[in-house]
Amino acid sequence: MTTYYQEGSWGVWRSMGAIVPSAYVEAVASAGGAPVLLPPVGIDDDVLEILDGLVIIGGPDVDPSQYGAEPHPETDPKPLRDDFEIGLARAALARDLPLLAICRGAQILNVAMGGTLHQHLPEITERAHEYRPSPGEYGRVEFTTEPGSICRGLLGERAWSPCYHHQALDRVADGLSVTATADDGTIEVVEADGSAWVVGVQFHPEENRGDPRLFEGFIAALAQRTEAPADPSENHQEDTP
């Protein structure tokens, strides 16, 4: 999973660090995965050759220059993570690697594939305050899933999740399909067309400790991909002379 790269503190120290909130780590581990942290320094796309899947975590706004837009006054990007995560997303897609993209991660996925973002939801929907009630306070979003989608299979027709964002997907990239929306039309889930397990969610499933279904689905996809096909020769018995 990708990481923040910013100032933090531990013990008596305060410095720059590669940081991941424990909720992400615990969600992957509880579902049966082994979390591996990928800071945006010293790592390139080749790391995916030794990984079974990729989680792009939440975080700051995506730089609008990545999708050809001028920055909104409320937009606060971190270009170091943008370049790294967009590159990883594209490489994961090229390898058909299972990919779970969370909040900012869903926006990264859409931008990496050619889509655009709404930079400030309060200008789009009167319900924007529900998605980010106040600094450091998660909102709650309810959404409806599309029949036949991965999220319908895992979460059912209606579900809810904690959320925290002021941006959202605008023009959805070619190759992605919207598979869940909130009641005000805000895109909550996108999935890649085709057979690869690629899911981008605008909400924060890692914060819903009582509902591990999305992470369990992701880990199941990893396991299915890494299962080696049976060798027909193992069942062959030579004739007795």
Mind explaining what this structure looks like?
This protein has 241 residues and is of the alpha+beta class. The chain contains five helices and eleven strands. The protein has helices spanning 22-30, 79-94, 104-112, 150-155, 213-226; strands spanning 4-10, 13-19, 54-56, 99-102, 117-118, 139-145, 158-163, 168-169, 176-182, 187-192, 198-201. The strands form three sheets. A seven-stranded mixed sheet has the order 3-4-11-10-9-6-7. A hairpin with a 2-residue loop joins strand 1 (4-10) and strand 2. Helix 2 crosses helix 3. The longest helix has 16 residues, at 79-94.
What labels would you give this structure?
241 residues; alpha+beta; disordered C terminus
Q: How far from one another are the termini?
A: 56 Å
- What is the radius of gyration computed over CA atoms, rounded to a whole number of angstroms? 19 Å
Structural class: alpha+beta
Query: How many individual helices?
Result: 5
- Tell me, rounded to a whole number, the average pLDDT: 93
Total number of beta strands? 11
Instruction: Please summarize the sheet with the most strands.
Output: 7 strands, mixed
Task: Estimate percent helicity.
Answer: 10-25%
How much of the sequence lies in strands comes to 15-25%
Shape verdict:
globular
Low-confidence spans: pLDDT under 50, at least 5 residues?
Answer: 230-241
Order of helices and strands: EEHEHEHEEHEEEEEH
Provide the spatial order of strands within the biggest beta sheet: 3-4-11-10-9-6-7
